[in-house]
Design brief:
Blueprint lengths: L1 E7 L4 E5 L4 E6 L9 E2 L8 E6 L5 E7 L5 E5 L6 E7 L3 E6 L8 H14 L3 E5 L7 H17 L3 E3 L8 H8 L3 E5 L6 H8 L12 E2 L5 E2 L4 E4 L5 E4 L21 H7 L16 H7 L5 H13 L5
Parallel strand pairs: 3-6, 4-8, 9-10, 9-12, 10-11, 12-16
Antiparallel strand pairs: 1-2, 1-5, 2-3, 5-6, 7-8, 13-14, 15-16
Helix pairs in contact: 1-7
Bound molecules: guanosine-5'-triphosphate and zinc ion.
Length: 306
Amino acid sequence: MQGLVIKSTGSWYSVLADDAKRYDCRIVGKFRMKGIQTTNPIAVGDRVKFDLERDGITGMINELFPRKNYIIRKSINLSKQAQILAANLDMAILLVTLASPRTSLGFIDRFLVTAEAYDVPAVLVFNKLDLFSKEGLEILQDFKEIYQTIGYPCYEVSALKGINIPIIQDLIKDKITLISGHSGVGKSSLINAILPDRELRTGEVSDWSDKGQHTTTFAEMYELPQGGFIVDTPGIRELGVIDIEKEELSHFFPEIFKTSHNCRFNNCRHINEPGCAVLEAVNNDQIAVSRYESYLSIYHNNDTRH
Ligand SMILES: Nc1nc2c(ncn2[C@@H]2O[C@H](COP(=O)(O)OP(=O)(O)OP(=O)(O)O)[C@@H](O)[C@H]2O)c(=O)[nH]1
Ligand SMILES: [Zn+2]
């Protein structure tokens, strides 16, 4: 039988099979991933094959289908180990607010770089629309223009007042979607608005605390009544920390990458090189200054965290 892993406790996996029934499964043998060592071989979002046991309600997973992508969390102390938080994400939503609290452009850009590196399509959703003044709405238009020009879809909602929620419900239908955002941005409110019945909580993964202790938090996969799942990872405010080589960073800024093909040197860093097409595009307002500043900031710090 085949199915989707909707819950993982480390030793048991809840698999939603193609017959729409749920089976508690264990793993046969070892599943090793090339390149990274993981504490959990299988995560929510994985598609697996399993053999049904005689009892008709439990199973043994014997095959993991190739992942189109996955997001990981590195252990802070156990340096070589990583934990797969979720696999096969169709979309990552970054929830953004322009006031109380204001999300910085740098934060947005770091999220987008990480999403690009993980190969997860990213979308920006601006929340707390009900709080926007006239000036706020103008800033919203500026923000949207920066990101829509690059190709990132932007939406605006009020989770509290229920504005534009059906648009988001439609957007996430039949997809596995990760919702991220910094504290206070309204993630819980949005999930509640989308999914009033929180009883549908369906998954979890364990996690490390900052002190390196192995604690359990809940990265949850909520099944949507209209089809699809939301992955919520409380305590993980971004997609996770990922190591990006300096030389590769521009690959994750789509507009910089596209423009860089016209740089004079093919190893151009886009910092001060003669004939740099990226610098020229920034000067001509074809690339947003804020985006270029984020590029420089990440380049110099080599850091995708806050
Ligand atoms: N005015 C307004 N307030 C909102 C909206 N959405 C959420 N809030 C408020 O913002 C605060 C934070 O909302 P939460 O949903 O708890 O935010 P969160 O992102 O889940 O925050 P953490 O639990 O810290 O991760 C609460 O006081 C909400 O009532 C909105 O659309 N408009
Ligand atoms: Zn260049």
